[in-house]
Amino acid sequence: xxxxxxxxxxxxxxxxxxxxxxxxxxxxxxxxxxxxxxxxxxxxxxxxxxxxxxxxxxxxxxxxxxxxxxxxxxxxxxxxxxxxxxxxxxxxxxxxxxxxxxxxxxxxxxxxxxxxxxxxxxxxxxxxxxxxxxxxxxxxxxxxxxxxxxxxxxxxxxxxxxxxxxxxxxxxxxxxxxxxxxxxxxxxxxxxxxxxxx
Length: 198
Hints:
By secondary structure, this protein is an alpha/beta fold.
């Protein structure tokens, strides 16, 4: 089996890391929701050695993440855990003071976006941070023409997917005692939304 590879991860990992260095400066345990190929998990763990990084993914993607971890020099990255956010009970015994997810909210259905916030609300400590990366809409409007085209492509691929509106996410977050505390502009019409559990 070859290591899975996503070009987007290679292109955005440095700019995301630059923000996580500041955001997660005091964090010790980070839950990554939907680790995808594992490229982000390995890169961030290697450069944030003070954090125990917990990758998660659907069962069929775990093996690929393990291939990246096997080649990593980081000793602070944990074995990937199977996580299906459709399940109400997430498989963690202890809480996390940080959580991160990249390019997931527009891929999954709106129902699963809500479940992600519900799960994050249960998994985070008080004052814990949830950082979400990707494209987002404001007041029901696309922030760029390229995002509008991307949304159309997403819906052709899966009608339940699509770029999410900030106000929609705020409601899901508030239902789980999470509030938006920062909205950081990123390259290529992406944003880094920083949420905090109350």
